[in-house]
Design goal:
The protein has 120 residues and is an all-beta fold. 0% of the residues lie in helices and 49% in strands. The protein has strands at residues 2-5, 8-11, 16-22, 28-34, 41-47, 52-54, 62-67, 72-77, 86-92, 109-110, 114-119. It is globular and about 35 Å long. It starts with a strand and ends with a strand. 32% of the residues are buried.
Length: 120
Amino acid sequence: QLVESGGGSVEAAGSLRLSCKYTYRTYCMGWFRQSPGQEREGVAVIQSDGSTRYADFVKDRSTISIDKGYNTLYLQLDNLKPEDTAMYYCAAGLGTPCHTGTQYTRIPFWGRGTQVTVSS
């Protein structure tokens, strides 16, 4: 089970930290997002060894991390832009290779999402 929280409405250049409480950790976990009319796209992923990868559109503006003691996956989003407005989803079971380009239809485990809205 994956349960997201931390979304909200912020002004451009603001920050948010998204959280995902998980029951079981998988080799590769990550965050995806989906805007109305758009396909779900990978934002950031993290492997069990701590290696991380980011989509180009959030590189240098986001940090994915995991707290194994609290079974929680995080996504820190900084310098938010209006185009970051989307529903953000926690995902698990991405398999190998662990990267943001994983086709979302091949990912077995999803949370319900948390909305991020950025105003200009």
